[in-house]
């Protein structure tokens, strides 16, 4: 398997506790130069000490070239990424990262933006607000958190020149200020795009409400930070044909397609291994996938012409891929 993204070496120039359980890391070029440009909504792969590669959204102003800013929430059930970042990374350390990639860009057509964030999902949305304010675009942001103490970048946002366009919603606050998607999300408006990031339950509720109100799918933009790892069973194994390699690979119930292909010597670019980032998306030539990803939209999944080999399976006994 081949992780995507060219390696860049950066130095940790600052580590800051932004909220309860959330810590930010300012990264600068290890040699003192400029970093590759990025656009609002972009993320980077980070390889923490002894931990697996993880994706973190850039939450600083996209016009900045002297630094990247990421924020990491300490997960109680961490598989190594957030624990390593919180416990082992300190100011002055060197880290290997990828160049920025963006699977959650702002719509090129512009118009009005409705930004909905919950918890650590504020990170890509914060970069969006910085850009939208800088270019004078119309936007409205809602930021939901369990409490004021768990709200990352509260001071930065509440004192920003765009603060009047942001509303905070705290679970432990007065009922009147809580975010109720069924009442606060109106029907689609011409030229308005909705962007949502946060826990999967929050995102599913927002997207479900938007679709129920007939928002066009092309105006719904989302980014999942993580997906629950689903077991490969109980369905049995199946065959994957790598068409360009001319190889037939058996995928057993206890392995992913990505793993089975790697063992057969067929490399596929990957990153998150959870069906979130889209780095491994592969074209389907024949067969019916069983989509388990959170990257493809419902319409894209229904088309059955693309597939995420890191987590998805096959309904048909054979799946022919453009590999």
Automatic annotation (TrEMBL):
Superkingdom assignment? Bacteria
* A Pfam family hit: Fer2
Cofactor(s) it depends on: FMN
Residue ranges constituting the 2Fe-2S ferredoxin-type domain according to the UniProt record: 238-323
Q: Does the keyword Oxidoreductase apply?
A: yes
InterPro entries in UniProt: 2Fe-2S_ferredoxin-like_sf (IPR036010), 2Fe-2S_ferredoxin-type (IPR001041), 2Fe2S_fd_BS (IPR006058), Beta-grasp_dom_sf (IPR012675), DmmA-like_N (IPR054582), FAD-bd_FR_type (IPR017927), FNR_nucleotide-bd (IPR039261), MRET (IPR050415)
Q: Which UniProt keywords apply?
A: 2Fe-2S, Flavoprotein, FMN, Iron, Iron-sulfur, Metal-binding, Oxidoreductase
Can you give the residue ranges of the FAD-binding FR-type domain?
5-107
CDD domains, alphabetized: fer2, PDR_like
Keyword Magnesium recorded: no
Designated name of the protein: PDR/VanB family oxidoreductase
The organism named in the record is: Hydrogenophaga luteola
């Amino acid at each position: 398997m081949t992780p995507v993204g060219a390696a860049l070496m950066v130095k940790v120039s600052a580590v800051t506790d932004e909220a309860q359980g959330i810590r930010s890391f300012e990264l600068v070029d290890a040699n003192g130069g400029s970093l590759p440009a990025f656009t609002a909504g972009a993320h980077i792969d980070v390889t923490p000490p002894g931990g697996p590669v993880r994706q973190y959204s850039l939450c600083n102003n996209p016009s900045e070239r002297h630094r990247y800013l990421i924020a990491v929430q300490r997960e109680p059930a961490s598989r190594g990424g957030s624990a390593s970042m919180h416990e082992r990374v300190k100011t002055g350390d060197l880290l290997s990262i990828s160049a920025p990639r963006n699977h959650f860009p702002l719509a090129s057509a512009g118009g009005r933006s409705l930004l909905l964030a919950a918890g650590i999902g504020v990170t890509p949305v914060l970069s969006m607000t910085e850009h939208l304010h800088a270019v004078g675009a119309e936007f409205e942001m809602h930021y939901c958190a369990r409490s004021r103490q768990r709200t990352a970048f509260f001071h930065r946002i509440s004192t920003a020149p765009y603060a009047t366009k942001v509303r905070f919603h705290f679970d432990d606050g007065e009922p009147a200020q809580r975010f109720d998607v069924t009442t606060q999300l109106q029907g689609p408006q011409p030229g308005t795009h909705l962007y949502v990031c946060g826990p999967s339950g929050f995102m599913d509720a927002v997207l479900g409400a938007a679709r129920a109100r007939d928002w066009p799918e092309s105006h719904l933009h989302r980014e999942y930070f993580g997906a629950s790892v689903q077991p490969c069973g109980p369905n049995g194994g199946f065959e994957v044909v790598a068409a360009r390699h001319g190889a037939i690979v058996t995928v057993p119930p206890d392995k992913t397609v990505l793993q089975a292909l790697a063992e057969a010597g067929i490399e596929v670019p990957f990153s998150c291994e959870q069906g979130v980032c889209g780095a491994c998306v592969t074209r389907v030539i024949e067969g019916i996938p069983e989509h388990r990803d959170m990257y493809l939209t419902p319409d894209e999944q229904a088309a059955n012409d693309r597939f995420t080999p890191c987590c998805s399976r096959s309904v048909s006994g054979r799946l022919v891929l453009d590999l």
